[in-house]
Structures are given as C-alpha cells and as structure tokens.
Amino acid sequence: MKTLRLILGDQLNHSHSWFRSDDADTLYFIAEMRQETDYVRHHIQKVVAFFEAMQAFAEWLQARGKQVIHYRLDHPDNTQKLGTNIANLVHSHGIQKFEYQQPDEYRLDQQLQQLADDLSIESEAFDSEHFLTGRDELARFFDGKKSLLMESFYRHMRRQHNVLMDGDAPTGGEWNYDKSNRKKWKGEPAIPHERGFRKDVRETLQRIEQAGVQTFGQIDALHFSWPTTREDCLKVLRHFCTHLLVHFGDFQDAMDPDETYLFHSRLSFAMNCKLLHPREVIDAVIAHWQQNKDTISINEVEGFVRQILGWREYMRGVYWREMPGYARCNRLQNHNSLPDFYWTADTRMNCLHQAIKNSLEHAYAHHIQRLMITGNFALLTQVHPDQVDAWYLGIYIDAIEWVEITNTRGMSQFADGGLVATKPYISSGSYINKMSNYCQDCHYNVKEKTGEDACPFNSLYWNFLAEKREYFNENPRMAMMLSLLDKMDSEELADLKKRARQIIHAPDTF
Ligand code: FAD
Ligand code: SF4
Q1: pLDDT tens by residue, 85-95
Q2: Domain with 475 in it: what CATH number?
Q3: Whole-prediction pTM value?
Q4: Atom number, ligand 2, closest to the C-alpha of residue 349
Q5: Which CATH number characterizes residue 46's domain?
C-alpha cells in the first residue's frame, strides 16, 4: 500500500503523530506553488519565510529517513497547482491512498475536499494536531447565545485547560488585567534586542524573483531574522521569556517610531506555520514566570496567555463558524479605496508613515499599530473591507486568512456588525498621542480639529460617528460618544465634516 501525504506550508508540525507512525510506504509531499504565491500579492519576506521553513522541514523529515518529494518553484514537474501536482504524483508513483491534514483556510479546505472526491483512490483527512480547540468548538460553546463575547470563551478555555487557575479561581484573583496594560513607553525600560540568527536567504529570494512572483516590501537577504526552523523558533521563545515577558503586559498597547517590536514576542509566524505549538508557548511562559515571580507580575503573563489561549483560538472558531459568508460582510457599507500610501508609506501623517514603513521594512507591525493606526484610518475613511483585507493578508509575515480576516473584517473594520468587537475600534488623534510619541514629530497638530494643520484623525472621527450613527444607535457602548455628537455645535460639526470629506476624497494628499 503506497500512501501520499500532503504537507502544506503552514503545517510544519514536528510533533504530528504522522511522523511517529510506521510510514515506510509513505511519500511526503511539500511544494512551493504559484497557486499560493499569487492568490494575493504578498510581502517578499512572507514568501521567503514560508519557503525557507518548508525547506527546513523537508530536510528534517529526510534526516529522519522519510521519503520526501519537495517541489521548489522551478522543479520541472511542478505544475504550480495543488490539484494537478497531486493527481500527477498519484499516477506516476502508483499511489493507492491520499492523506492530508485539514487545512486552516476555507479556500484550501474546499479545494482538498474536491480533490479527494475527484481522485479515484481512497483519501483521508487528519487533524493538524495544532490548535487547542476543534473547528466547531466555539460554535458549540456559543450555541443559542446572542453575542460571541471573547471574555467568556477565554474563561472557558482557562478552566478547560487548567491554565492560570488556582482550583476554580483565576490565579491572582482576576481573570483579566487589561487595565494595567496601557502604559506609554518613554525610552525606559530598555528593550533587549534579539541577537540570534541572521540568515542568508539569497538563494530562496533569487528563486522567487526568477520565477517572476509579484511581491512587495523590503528584505535584507543576508541577515534574514524571522525564525524558520524549529531551533530558531525555540530561540525566539526563550528570548521572549527571559527578556521581554517582564514588560509585555505593561507596554502591550504602546507605540514608538524607533522600536519595531517593543516587548512583543514575534512568535506569530512560528505558531501560524505550526513550528511551535500554542500550548508549548503558554507552558514555557508560565514556567518562566513561576520561577521568577519576584520580578514578573501576573498582569504580564495573563496578558500574553489571553492573546494565545483566548484571542487566537477564538478567531479560529469565529472563522469556521462564519465562513464563507464572512469574507463578503460589509455591514457598514464602506466603499472607498485604500489610499496609495498604504503601499509606500508616503504620507505626512507620522503615525501612518511610521506604522506602514515598519510593515514594509519588516513584514510586521504589532497589534495596536494594526488596529489603532492603519485599521483605524481605513475604517474612518470608510474603505471597502475587501481592499483592507487584501492589504493585511499580503503585508504581514503571519497573515493566514483564518486569523487575518477575523482580525481585519471583524475586530478592526466592524464589517461583521459587531460579532467580534462590541464597538468599533476608532479614535481621534488624542488616543494615538496618549499611547505613542508619533505626534510630536508630525506635520499635523493633534490638538486641532479643523484647519489646514489639524490632525486628520480628529475630523474623521466625528464625521464617522455622524455618517454611520444609524448602525450604532442601539449600541450601549457607543451611547456616550453619540450623546457628545448630539451636543456638538452644528457649525462646528459642519466644519469637521467638511474637512473629513476633503481627507476622504484625497487621502494621498495628506
Ligand atoms: P504578541 O503581541 O507577542 O502576542 C503573542 C501572540 O498572541 C501572537 O503571536 C499571536 O499568535 C497571538 N495573538 C495576539 N493577538 C491576537 C489576535 N488579535 N488574534 C489572534 N491571535 C493573536 N495575527 C496573526 O497571527 N495573523 C494575522 O494575519 C493578523 N492580522 C491582524 C490584522 C489586524 C487588523 C489586527 C488588528 C490584528 C491582526 N493579528 C494577526 C493579531 C496580532 O496583531 C498579531 O498576532 C501580532 O501582532 C503578532 O505579533 P507578535 O507575535 O509579536 O504578538
Ligand atoms: Fe497621527 Fe494626528 Fe498624531 Fe499626526 S497628529 S501622528 S496624524 S495622530
């Protein structure tokens, strides 16, 4: 019996039970394909990182004596499409059974189900053995409930997996320490920078360029710093525990033009391609905290655990509950185009300039930049969620649809009408000024609302509330802002709206 097992680029799970099974008659298949490089325009670092990680994984399997076929983009038998590649291998190698791990993306899930139906041989889908929840666990948890409150799901996960629990009570007495996690970073404490690997990825880059794959963004191919092997990922995890966890929570929402990563972990790519297991990350962080309780407070640890045990699993559950309809939702009826400066960082608005420059240089921005700078501006200028999605899906190293679309359409753009976020994440310039030092070097004045020099976020914020208020009339969390809007002098509001319209019509001139 000869079996063909497919391993997708985000299924690089070293501890999968497949690799412990008796697989002498098994052929593993890993492939770089234009189908995956071209479905959206990706940042060059993202394509390089996936190809490097796949190559290292194929080598790891071969070193364990497995039979592996690894197609690079330029392999003569590579048809660049999953379906025909598999069908050809089945034919040429006399394969009798096709096996795959359930993909995390709806698009690939549909494609593989269809492929399995079309093949004339037996096929079987396996769990990817990565997540802490099954695809439909969130849907079952919220069955019959009106809203999908992340906090209640998170508490359920804490109890179910016995994470940060003292018996039935949350460790430290509180479930959530978010209120302690809103400090502005003012150059102190110092941030120990990573000194780990700096890889030479020129060969992979050359292959991508020679194939003519259309990418964007920058890369330093001699000093590539994203972790693409299991060892590299463990190094990044250790660095986080030892040096960054101590202030993760405190400065989780802070922003600084000179500090790309602040105290964030940079672990999303490692987890999303499954080189690290979420439980292993959570356990490492908690173990480190337990040994260093005198220096690391609970708010740092809880804040981090919530992102992985809470938000990450929650987003996966929302994705499988809502797809495929989620990819079309546009509840606020936004139809404008994404400004060109999202692709160039060429804007005088310093917060946007810095966050986009960062993203183009590193294929990374931390959460609050994604949510409260680029996401905030796109929502306030009422950009169509399709365009916002395509940008986020392309630009970030960790962008895979199940976690990108739920964060973008849901949390950031409110396109699902409030399924994920209980209110839209919008702000005027004052929030940005409170959490960052962008405004002090900006062309615009954060204190002004109208006039040539006024911070664009200020007029856009009030204009958004005025134009979209019908969607929020019933939302208690918006009541205070809407009542302030109602009390506003009509001339002042007219001026704000006029300025906002100028920005919305020509964002690239600001
Ligand atoms: P840290 O701040 O160190 O957090 C630790 C881990 O928690 C992350 O690695 C990630 O696995 C998890 N996490 C944190 N926040 C979230 C969240 N909201 N949802 C799911 N997991 C979370 N994350 C992605 O992995 N892929 C995406 O494509 C993606 N797109 C986003 C788009 C928008 C508009 C927003 C607002 C957020 C998006 N996020 C996405 C969530 C979050 O911004 C990133 O996970 C995080 O910035 C990755 O950097 P880090 O590893 O340093 O995270
Ligand atoms: Fe951004 Fe406004 Fe501050 Fe400039 S003044 S950095 S546009 S928030």
Answers
A1: 999 999 999 99
A2: 1.10.579.10
A3: 0.97
A4: 7
A5: 3.40.50.620
Q: What distance in angstroms lies between residue 510's CA and the mean position of ligand 2's atoms?
A: 11
- How many domains is the chain built from? 3
For residue 216, count other CB atoms closer than 10 A to its CB. 14
Residue with tokens 């986009």: 356
**Cα 261-266-269 angle, rounded to 5 deg:** 140
Which residue type does 253 have?
D
The percent of the chain in helix, strand and coil, each rounded to the nearest 5, is 50, 10, 40
pLDDT tens digits, 233-267? 999 999 999 999 999 999 999 999 999 999 999 99
Q: Is 236 in the pocket of ligand 1 (CB under 6 A)?
A: no
Tell me what pLDDT residue 146 has.
Answer: 80
Which of 319, 338, 368 represents a domain boundary (last residue)? 319
CATH number at residue 204: 1.25.40.80
Q: Is the CB of 375 under 6 A from ligand 1?
A: yes
At 280, list the tokens: 């292993």
Ligand 1 atom nearest the C-alpha of 411 is 36
Residues 346 and 307 reside in one and the same domain: no
Shared domain for 150 and 93, answered yes or no, is no
Q: At residue 321, does pLDDT exceed 70?
A: yes
Least confident of 178-182, 340-344, 391-395, 411-415: 178-182
Strand partners, 68: 28
Same domain? 116 vs 157: no
445 CA closest ligand 2 atom index: 5
Which residues in 407-430 are b (16+ Cβ under 10 Å) and which e?
A: bbbbbbbbbbebbbbbebbbbbbe
3-state secondary structure 101-154: ECCCCHHHHHHHHHHHHHCCCEEEEECCCCCCCCCCHHHHHCCCCCCCCHHHHH
Helices (H), 240-277: 245-248, 268-272
Q: Which two tokens stand for residue 477?
A: 């969390």
Domain residues for 213? 137-319
Do both 64 and 173 map to the same domain?
A: no
- The domain boundary, picked from 290, 319, 348, lies at 319
